[in-house]
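Bumping my old thread because nobody answered last time. Still need a sequence for this structure:
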């Protein structure tokens, strides 16, 4: 049982880390939007420069979301494996009790 609790806490920690990273990624995306708005008065930035900058931030955001998705899939896999272990143990205990 202690092992199961430890695994659940590990999964919880992994998910909390993912939530924190999602917040960071959102801040990065917002920063990209704000950087392009603050350049409005800067005549050295052409419209194409702003578009290029937004696309760079968009590409970074896409990559961040892909990494986050992979991390969540990994946590789900660990949770599924843990659930399988618990169900197996439950069936095993019932079988031993019926013998």
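Sorry it took so long. Here it is:
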């Amino acid at each position: 049982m202690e092992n199961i609790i430890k695994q659940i806490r590990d999964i919880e920690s992994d998910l909390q880390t993912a939530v924190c990273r999602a917040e960071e990624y959102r801040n990065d995306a917002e920063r990209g939007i704000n950087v392009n708005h603050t350049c409005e008065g800067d005549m050295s930035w052409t419209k194409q420069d702003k578009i290029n900058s937004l696309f760079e931030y968009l590409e970074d955001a896409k990559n961040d979301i892909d990494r986050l998705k992979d991390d969540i899939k990994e946590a789900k896999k660990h949770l599924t494996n843990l659930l399988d272990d618990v169900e197996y143990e439950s069936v095993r205990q019932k079988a031993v009790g019926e013998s």
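Residues 2-98 form one domain. Let me know if any region looks off to you.
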